[in-house]
Every structure is written in structure tokens, then in C-alpha cells.
Design brief:
alpha+beta; SH3 type barrels; OB fold (Dihydrolipoamide Acetyltransferase, E2P); 4-stranded antiparallel beta sheet; 3-stranded antiparallel beta sheet; Chromo/chromo_shadow_dom; Chromo-like_dom_sf; Chromo domain-containing protein
Length: about 210
Amino acid sequence: MTHDELLQRIDHMAEVVFPAIKERTELITKTQKEKFDKTHTIVKINTGSYMMIRLPTRSSKLAPAYQGLYIVIRKTQGGCYVLQDETRALMPRDYPPSDPKLISVDETALADELVEVQAIINHRANIGRREYLVQWKGQGPEEDEWLMPDKFTNLKTIQDYWTRREKQELSTMDKIVPTTPKRGRPPKKVSNNEAANSAPKRRGRPPKQPK
């Protein structure tokens, strides 16, 4: 290959081959992105939004999947979120977009109507749409209210409720004990001869003896 042919080959690569490779790469990347966006919804979370955090592990299917009520302080360059809890303390680590769950909270209601829960006394509906009957601290039974799990600022209250129910069910099962016959020796079987010999004698005067 001569010097001129080499220069022509270089010009051909720069003007035809490399642009074609770039165009093909951009087309494939765009197609993959569109396919990914159809099955994955990326929610943009703004600063000041309220969210809950997905728990990495669950002790059982009835255990809550999310915890807390946190406020987004800022977003890092890596795309993670810096969060603050209800006591205004920063969380010890940042959370990726897959962990938080965005929720809608009225800030004025959170500040003015935050009431302490005395206990959860009942539940209804199925998993995913379950509600809990809450007894408020310092208020009467007429103020009891049904709430969804995302209304709790601390999901430990829900965990305590299920722990208490499990203990009650175990206690109830322990009280149900099947009755068993009394232990003792079986009645002794008596044969016919023994029954005849052991039959009580008739009472009466003894027979007269001959003189």
C-alpha cells in the first residue's frame, strides 16, 4: 500500500466508517433507553419532599416493607439522596433512588396535628391495603381512627402490634389442652371359680350339731 493509498484509507475511515459506527451506537443506546423507560418509572424527587425507606430485610411477610418518615435535604452528584428524620437529624448514610418511596404529606398537618399513638388495637383488609385501628394517647375510644401504614411516622408501632397478636395467639393455643382419661389400675378380672369362692355367705343361724 502506497502512501497516497494509506492517506485515502485514513480519510475514508474518518469520513465514513467512524461516523457510521457513532450513528449506530447512538441508535442502539436510544432503543435500549426507550425499552428501559417503558418498564422502569424514574420518579424525580425534589428537595423538601417526604419519603419512606425500604427495609433491606423483613422478618416475615407481615412485617412492614418501609420505615420512617424522612425529608429530602439534597441530592448528591452520584444521584443519591441525603435525608433527615422527624427530629431534624441527618441520616448516617445516603440512599439510592431505588430505596426511597415518595409519599404525600401535608406539612402543616404534620406540625400541628402530630399525635402520639397509644397502641394499635385492630386491623382490617388484606396485605397491601391493610388499615390499622389506632388508639390515640390521652384520648377516648370515640377518637380511635383507621390509618394506612404510610401515616405512621414510626413503623415500630405496627411491628409491636403483630408481636403482641402472635403472643396472644400462642397463649390461646396453650390453654386449649385435650382432656385425657385419668390414670389408674384397670379393674381386676375375676374368673368364675374365684367369683364362686369369693361370693358372700348367707347370714343366719349355724346348723345344729347332732348330739
